[in-house]
Amino acid sequence: MSKVLMISSNTFAYSYPVYPLGMAMVTGALKKKGHSVVQFDYSAHEYPEEELRKRIIDFAPDYIGISVRNIDEVDSMSIEPSVLGIEKRIVSIIRNTTSAAIIIGGSAFSIMPEEILEYTGADYGIVGAGEGQVTGLIESLKLGKPVPRISRGCPLNIDCSNNISPEWEKVMVDFYIKKSGMLNIQTKRGCPYNCSYCVYPSLEGKSFRYRDPDAVIYDIKRAYSEFNVNTFFITDSIFNDPEGHYLEIAEKIIQSGMNIRWAGYFRPKGVSQDEFRLLKRSGLYAVEVGADAGCDHTLYEMGKGFTFEDIMGFYRGCLNEGIASAYFFIFGGPGETGKTIDEGLINLKQLEHGVIFIYSGIRILPGTGLYRLALKENIISEEDSLLRPVYYFSPGIDVNEMNRKIIEEAEKNRRYIFPPEKGKLMIDAMHAFGYRGLLWDELLKVTGRSERHRKRH
Asked: Which terminus of the chain has fewer Cβ atoms in its 10 Å neighbourhood, N or C?
């Protein structure tokens, strides 16, 4: 068998650093096939380049995998977006230290594989789920078989996720628990919805692929017993699927008797009050909601499939059960006008006990409905490289005036996080005071105390 060094290159920590679950899953698959694997997390070292060189020399790997989670910060107001500079540097370090073949993959790589492979200079790339593909690629390379530079899709004869558990390492678990207070878990992949800007369907498939609930509970129990972790974030694109798989997970958590806390991404539709109660009993303490647009017209234009009243109904359900909720909104997207901006800002005021994250414009990514719209409106051309970020703004708005209005509202309310840099500064301050976890839920507590204080005085 081969020696494989796996590297997580992600250093983005807003709004909290996340355990490299993709690398852990691929490592689990490699070890299941008998390979010797060492994991290296670039963000977990004070001097990562020195440590990476040392790790390569000491381990002498036959193959090196790089997991790329983010292309950039997805913030149109960032002065100088960081674009894959670390990944390019990692490849350079590897080249100067070893002749091992370099395989690159991960969610970000899968969005623009040809461009990222060329830009970083890696040898091979894997698009989509890596657990099955990486083992097959290494086997072919060992046997000297011809292989394409870019492999696409999980082979149908290989179980790519259900029978594989993440290979957590104690040193890394301790690092992330110290930094964020939680560990990641995935219960399914894919997304059947048609949000105009989203790459999840092309990355993971256009239908949900569920993990066996018992396998999910096994992973939670393992983290709970081996690493004393009792707080988790479920990283599914959407946790509350229409088929009710998420409710089965919640019921099994309750049946396990584990006293855990967890949060996840939710779609603001289709959860009854009884279901909220069940989720709360299972340990749900916070939800993050991709609301995305502030009024019915822009929700329709983004292809969200729900209304603002659906968002409010979901908000009320959370409020009734004491579940903290945060809502992500994008202004300036398809169909946005001066009128819809004003309507959206008025609507947001109804979410008076939620944290509101606001973004200006939408990062255009290949393979999305937004990409096709941007081509049609001549915002981009088919020859344009999107490796450096290009943002979509509706032709019907004045972007500077829109941003001014949002900033004005955000200055009145601490729960509004805009521009994103404001959130980074607030989170850094909370870290300095020893807070861990999602942090925006702590902001709700602080804001609530301030509001109650003002009312008393």
From this structure: C
